[in-house]
Amino acid sequence: MQRSPYDTAAALLPLVGGPANITSVAHCMTRLRLGLSDPSLVEGEAVRAVPGVLGVVTDGDSLQVVIGPGAVVTVTAEFQQLLTTEKAAAAAQPATPGAEQLAARGAELRAARVRRNATPLKTALRRVADVFVPLIPALIGCGVLAGLNGLLVNAGLLPSLTPALAAIASGFMALISVFVGYNTAKVFGGTPVLGGAVAAIVVYPGVAKVTAFGVALAPGQGGVLGALAAALLAVHVERWCRGRVPDALDVLLTPTVTVLVAGLATLYGLMYGAGLVSSAIGTAADWLLATTGPLAGLILGGLFLPLVMLGLHQALIPIHTTLIQQQGYTVLLPLLAMAGAGQVGAALAVYVRLRHDTSLRTTIRSALPAGLLGVGEPLIYGVSLPLGRPFLTACAGGAAGGAFVGFFAVLGDRVGATAIGPSGWALFPLLTGNRGPALAAAVYAGGLLTGYAVGFLATYVSFSGDSSST
Fold first, then answer.
1. What is the pTM of this model?
2. Model confidence pLDDT, tens digit, residues 136-176
3. For the chain, which domains are there?
4. For the chain, which terminus, N or C, has the lower number of CB atoms within 10 Å?
């Protein structure tokens, strides 16, 4: 019998330190992301043993519980509701003598521990991921519709419908900077709507009348990077105002000064600078694939699984989004997706090798459909990582698949994805390239087959068949 989302949430809450230990709740496509006051209170092994949990990643003061696509949304909702209810019940209880002092002292100790464990780089990457992860569902939906519309246009079908599909698919991307600005202010402690208001300047058509550094600005110049920078500046200006503006004037002056200062800086500096950075990203990606395609594919495909394991792959979202805004697709995602192919091949080899390990073979059978569709965590945490060596051979398979796709990039056949999020077979509807979606799909399929084959063979040869092999 399948476990309900409520049962999973109720089992997790006490194992992560209880309501008092939770500072934030969010989710991405596959993971429940919890901010913690004291990470040492988490019972890691017990969390992993909860039915429905596919893995656990600890990162400083945060915990990522891998649950899988779809299920993570309902479990997060139940967890949030349960957390709210229990915190309200706890607040209604009378405090015992000295409890407030002890709680304050405990909070100080936990904060000190968090400061020691959280490096500036980890904190920055986590926050940037928190800005972009909520946008992924819209990116996927609009990307699929854009791909469908492209197929209809190329085939000359339904000409009365394609303009409507184009409008639906393009609307979000045209205004994505506003959403980035809103989320940035929200994540970094500002007023979300002020972040969105400043970021909206980036896409406003009227900026074409503004000249910065002797050059007329273009609407959308700087893209999501400009929006991110603008909203970050707005957060700092707003904080500066809050500490200096009298309370009676705060509602009038703080928003005005925030939008004015951050807006002028956006027009006369940030859009221009972010535009240079965005252009450099596109140029670098094109140069990398055109000149070192197989090597670039090998490195990117081979190292992506460790990034997924650490939860750091979300930090690549701004780069993907920038490339999609510039070129209509990201050439990096198909290379990175090869890591999942190596993982599938490695898991199949383990399945063949361990003929008498019924439990592990059952796990592989359950996780393979998700792996084929590009969700790698079930196979990572349920199969390859616990066994050790198959994780390395899975990386080898990903490297081989990435090198295959990169080789065709050197020949001038670039493969890209019109949106981010899916990989594996689920990426096919989003594929396109400089020579059309058909050739892009063929090259991508070849990369997957290469990843499957090399991951399988490398694992089969190196894996002894002993489930304790490392």
1. 0.77
2. 888 888 888 887 887 788 788 888 899 999 899 889 988 99
3. 5-118 (3.30.1360.60), 133-279 (no CATH), 298-462 (no CATH)
4. N
